[in-house]
Write a sequence for this structure.
Protein backbone atom coordinates (compact mmCIF):
# COMPACT_ATOMS: atom_id res chain seq x y z
CA UNK A 1 0.00 0.00 0.00
CA UNK A 2 2.66 2.48 1.03
CA UNK A 3 5.98 0.89 0.02
CA UNK A 4 4.37 -1.69 -2.26
CA UNK A 5 5.88 -4.43 -0.07
CA UNK A 6 4.38 -7.84 0.59
CA UNK A 7 3.09 -9.77 2.39
CA UNK A 8 0.63 -7.43 4.00
CA UNK A 9 -0.50 -7.85 7.60
CA UNK A 10 -3.43 -6.61 9.63
CA UNK A 11 -3.06 -3.00 10.74
CA UNK A 12 -5.41 -0.99 12.94
CA UNK A 13 -7.11 1.86 11.11
CA UNK A 14 -7.12 3.80 14.36
CA UNK A 15 -4.55 3.10 17.07
CA UNK A 16 -6.02 1.59 20.23
CA UNK A 17 -4.40 4.18 22.48
CA UNK A 18 -6.99 6.73 21.31
CA UNK A 19 -9.41 5.13 23.77
CA UNK A 20 -7.24 6.35 26.67
CA UNK A 21 -8.57 9.83 25.96
CA UNK A 22 -12.27 9.00 25.90
CA UNK A 23 -14.45 9.86 28.84
CA UNK A 24 -16.03 6.80 30.40
CA UNK A 25 -19.48 7.52 29.00
CA UNK A 26 -18.35 7.52 25.40
CA UNK A 27 -18.58 3.99 24.21
CA UNK A 28 -16.46 3.28 21.19
CA UNK A 29 -19.05 1.11 19.48
CA UNK A 30 -20.89 4.12 18.07
CA UNK A 31 -18.05 5.34 15.91
CA UNK A 32 -19.04 6.27 12.40
CA UNK A 33 -17.23 6.39 9.10
CA UNK A 34 -18.73 8.11 6.06
CA UNK A 35 -17.33 8.21 2.56
CA UNK A 36 -19.05 10.28 -0.09
CA UNK A 37 -18.41 9.94 -3.80
CA UNK A 38 -18.30 12.64 -6.39
CA UNK A 39 -21.74 11.47 -7.52
CA UNK A 40 -23.04 12.13 -4.00
CA UNK A 41 -23.44 8.45 -3.23
CA UNK A 42 -22.61 7.62 0.33
CA UNK A 43 -21.04 4.62 2.03
CA UNK A 44 -21.42 4.46 5.76
CA UNK A 45 -20.06 2.23 8.46
CA UNK A 46 -21.17 2.21 12.07
CA UNK A 47 -19.26 0.14 14.53
CA UNK A 48 -16.28 -0.46 16.69
CA UNK A 49 -13.73 1.72 15.00
CA UNK A 50 -10.95 1.13 17.51
CA UNK A 51 -10.78 -2.56 16.74
CA UNK A 52 -11.18 -2.15 12.97
CA UNK A 53 -8.27 -3.52 10.99
CA UNK A 54 -7.39 -3.58 7.33
CA UNK A 55 -5.01 -6.01 5.66
CA UNK A 56 -3.09 -3.59 3.51
CA UNK A 57 0.22 -2.69 5.12
CA UNK A 58 3.45 -4.69 5.20
CA UNK A 59 5.08 -5.60 8.51
CA UNK A 60 8.13 -3.29 8.15
CA UNK A 61 5.84 -0.30 7.50
CA UNK A 62 3.43 -1.30 10.26
CA UNK A 63 6.04 -1.76 12.98
CA UNK A 64 8.43 0.82 11.56
CA UNK A 65 7.54 4.33 10.49
CA UNK A 66 3.79 4.01 11.12
CA UNK A 67 4.35 2.87 14.69
CA UNK A 68 6.93 5.62 15.24
CA UNK A 69 4.42 8.19 13.95
CA UNK A 70 1.84 6.98 16.48
CA UNK A 71 4.39 7.37 19.26
CA UNK A 72 5.27 10.91 18.22
CA UNK A 73 1.70 12.17 17.84
CA UNK A 74 0.33 10.59 21.02
CA UNK A 75 1.46 13.24 23.57
CA UNK A 76 -0.27 16.00 21.61
CA UNK A 77 -3.28 14.20 20.20
CA UNK A 78 -4.19 12.50 23.45
CA UNK A 79 -4.46 15.88 25.19
CA UNK A 80 -6.60 17.16 22.34
CA UNK A 81 -8.87 14.09 22.52
CA UNK A 82 -9.40 14.88 26.20
CA UNK A 83 -10.12 18.51 25.39
CA UNK A 84 -7.10 19.81 27.31
CA UNK A 85 -5.32 23.02 26.31
CA UNK A 86 -2.15 22.12 24.43
CA UNK A 87 0.66 24.13 22.87
CA UNK A 88 1.44 23.06 19.33
CA UNK A 89 4.94 24.06 18.24
CA UNK A 90 5.96 23.57 14.58
CA UNK A 91 7.27 20.02 15.17
CA UNK A 92 3.93 19.06 16.75
CA UNK A 93 2.05 20.58 13.80
CA UNK A 94 4.14 18.53 11.39
CA UNK A 95 3.55 15.25 13.20
CA UNK A 96 -0.17 15.99 13.62
CA UNK A 97 -0.50 16.80 9.92
CA UNK A 98 1.39 13.65 8.92
CA UNK A 99 -0.74 11.51 11.23
CA UNK A 100 -3.91 13.06 9.79
CA UNK A 101 -2.81 12.16 6.26
CA UNK A 102 -1.83 8.60 7.28
CA UNK A 103 -5.11 8.01 9.10
CA UNK A 104 -7.18 9.51 6.25
CA UNK A 105 -5.50 7.05 3.88
CA UNK A 106 -6.12 4.10 6.22
CA UNK A 107 -9.78 5.09 6.56
CA UNK A 108 -10.05 5.10 2.79
CA UNK A 109 -8.65 1.58 2.63
CA UNK A 110 -11.33 0.47 5.06
CA UNK A 111 -14.22 2.17 3.26
CA UNK A 112 -13.24 2.56 -0.40
CA UNK A 113 -15.21 4.14 -3.21
CA UNK A 114 -15.08 2.76 -6.76
CA UNK A 115 -13.29 5.94 -7.74
CA UNK A 116 -10.89 6.61 -4.83
CA UNK A 117 -11.35 9.99 -3.14
CA UNK A 118 -7.60 10.16 -2.51
CA UNK A 119 -5.43 8.84 -5.37
CA UNK A 120 -3.05 5.91 -4.87
CA UNK A 121 0.02 8.08 -5.41
CA UNK A 122 -0.62 9.75 -2.04
CA UNK A 123 0.26 6.45 -0.32
CA UNK A 124 3.64 6.18 -2.01
CA UNK A 125 4.31 9.90 -1.61
CA UNK A 126 3.74 9.64 2.14
CA UNK A 127 5.97 6.58 2.35
CA UNK A 128 8.77 8.44 0.58
CA UNK A 129 8.41 11.90 2.14
CA UNK A 130 7.04 10.99 5.61
CA UNK A 131 5.13 14.26 5.61
CA UNK A 132 2.25 15.81 3.63
CA UNK A 133 2.94 17.40 0.25
CA UNK A 134 3.71 21.11 0.42
CA UNK A 135 0.47 22.05 -1.35
CA UNK A 136 -1.76 20.07 1.05
CA UNK A 137 -3.64 21.76 3.87
CA UNK A 138 -4.26 20.30 7.30
CA UNK A 139 -6.43 22.00 9.92
CA UNK A 140 -7.52 21.24 13.45
CA UNK A 141 -10.61 22.15 15.40
CA UNK A 142 -12.42 21.42 18.64
CA UNK A 143 -15.83 19.93 19.25
CA UNK A 144 -17.81 18.46 22.09
CA UNK A 145 -18.68 14.95 20.82
CA UNK A 146 -22.23 15.13 19.43
CA UNK A 147 -25.08 12.70 19.90
CA UNK A 148 -26.48 10.63 17.08
CA UNK A 149 -29.78 8.90 17.83
CA UNK A 150 -29.41 9.98 21.44
CA UNK A 151 -26.04 8.33 22.00
CA UNK A 152 -22.60 9.89 22.23
CA UNK A 153 -20.48 9.56 19.14
CA UNK A 154 -16.84 9.45 20.25
CA UNK A 155 -15.30 9.15 16.80
CA UNK A 156 -16.17 9.96 13.24
CA UNK A 157 -14.51 10.08 9.86
CA UNK A 158 -15.89 11.85 6.81
CA UNK A 159 -14.42 11.89 3.32
CA UNK A 160 -15.96 14.39 0.90
CA UNK A 161 -14.69 14.72 -2.69
CA UNK A 162 -15.34 17.55 -5.14
CA UNK A 163 -14.47 17.98 -8.77
CA UNK A 164 -14.02 21.55 -9.90
CA UNK A 165 -14.04 22.60 -13.53
CA UNK A 166 -12.82 26.03 -14.42
CA UNK A 167 -12.22 27.82 -17.69
CA UNK A 168 -8.90 29.55 -18.07
CA UNK A 169 -8.63 33.03 -19.55
CA UNK A 170 -7.47 31.37 -22.76
CA UNK A 171 -10.65 29.27 -22.92
CA UNK A 172 -9.24 25.84 -22.08
CA UNK A 173 -11.05 23.87 -19.39
CA UNK A 174 -9.15 23.20 -16.23
CA UNK A 175 -10.25 20.32 -14.03
CA UNK A 176 -9.15 19.84 -10.47
CA UNK A 177 -10.18 17.35 -7.80
CA UNK A 178 -10.26 18.09 -4.12
CA UNK A 179 -11.04 15.83 -1.18
CA UNK A 180 -11.65 16.87 2.40
CA UNK A 181 -11.21 14.21 5.08
CA UNK A 182 -12.29 15.15 8.59
CA UNK A 183 -11.49 12.97 11.59
CA UNK A 184 -13.15 13.66 14.93
CA UNK A 185 -11.89 11.82 18.03
CA UNK A 186 -13.16 12.85 21.44
CA UNK A 187 -12.82 16.65 21.48
CA UNK A 188 -10.18 16.70 18.74
CA UNK A 189 -10.97 17.43 15.11
CA UNK A 190 -8.35 17.18 12.38
CA UNK A 191 -8.90 17.76 8.70
CA UNK A 192 -6.95 17.06 5.52
CA UNK A 193 -7.61 19.00 2.32
CA UNK A 194 -5.89 17.44 -0.65
CA UNK A 195 -6.25 18.56 -4.26
CA UNK A 196 -4.76 17.83 -7.63
CA UNK A 197 -3.40 17.56 -10.23
CA UNK A 198 -0.14 17.12 -8.37
CA UNK A 199 1.60 20.34 -7.49
CA UNK A 200 -1.57 22.42 -7.73
CA UNK A 201 -1.28 25.42 -5.41
CA UNK A 202 -4.42 26.88 -3.89
CA UNK A 203 -5.75 28.87 -1.00
CA UNK A 204 -8.77 27.99 1.07
CA UNK A 205 -10.88 30.46 2.97
CA UNK A 206 -13.19 29.43 5.80
CA UNK A 207 -15.04 32.75 5.89
CA UNK A 208 -17.22 32.99 8.99
CA UNK A 209 -15.78 29.70 10.22
CA UNK A 210 -12.20 30.86 10.56
CA UNK A 211 -12.38 31.23 14.40
CA UNK A 212 -13.13 27.48 14.52
CA UNK A 213 -10.16 26.48 12.38
CA UNK A 214 -6.44 26.38 13.14
CA UNK A 215 -4.04 25.51 10.30
CA UNK A 216 -1.27 23.02 11.16
CA UNK A 217 0.04 22.41 7.65
CA UNK A 218 1.92 24.11 6.17
CA UNK A 219 3.47 24.60 9.61
CA UNK A 220 3.58 28.01 11.25
CA UNK A 221 4.51 29.55 14.60
CA UNK A 222 3.52 27.91 17.90
CA UNK A 223 -0.13 28.32 18.83
CA UNK A 224 -2.41 27.11 21.57
CA UNK A 225 -5.23 24.63 20.85
CA UNK A 226 -8.28 24.68 21.04
CA UNK A 227 -9.85 27.32 18.80
CA UNK A 228 -13.50 28.27 19.26
CA UNK A 229 -15.68 25.19 19.77
CA UNK A 230 -17.90 23.77 17.07
CA UNK A 231 -21.12 23.37 19.03
CA UNK A 232 -23.74 21.86 16.79
CA UNK A 233 -23.91 19.19 14.13
CA UNK A 234 -24.87 21.89 11.67
CA UNK A 235 -21.62 23.72 12.40
CA UNK A 236 -19.71 20.47 12.06
CA UNK A 237 -21.41 19.77 8.71
CA UNK A 238 -20.21 23.12 7.38
CA UNK A 239 -16.73 22.52 8.78
CA UNK A 240 -16.42 19.12 7.11
CA UNK A 241 -17.31 20.48 3.67
CA UNK A 242 -15.41 23.76 3.26
CA UNK A 243 -15.56 23.48 -0.54
CA UNK A 244 -19.35 23.33 -0.68
CA UNK A 245 -19.96 27.06 -0.66
CA UNK A 246 -16.69 28.10 -2.18
CA UNK A 247 -17.26 26.01 -5.30
CA UNK A 248 -14.11 27.29 -6.92
CA UNK A 249 -11.50 27.15 -4.16
CA UNK A 250 -8.53 26.41 -6.34
CA UNK A 251 -7.09 29.38 -8.20
CA UNK A 252 -3.57 28.61 -9.38
ZN1 LIG B 1 5.46 -1.37 3.51
Amino acid sequence: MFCGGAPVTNEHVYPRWLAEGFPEKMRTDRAMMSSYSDQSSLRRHFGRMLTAQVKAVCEPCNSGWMSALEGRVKPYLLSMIKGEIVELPPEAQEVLATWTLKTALMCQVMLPQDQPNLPAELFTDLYQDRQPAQEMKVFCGYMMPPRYLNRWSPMENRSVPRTIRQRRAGGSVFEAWATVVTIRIGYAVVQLVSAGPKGLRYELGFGNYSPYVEPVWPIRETFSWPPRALKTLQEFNVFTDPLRQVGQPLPE
Q: What stands out?
A: The chain has a mean pLDDT of 88. The chain is about 25% helix and 30% strand.
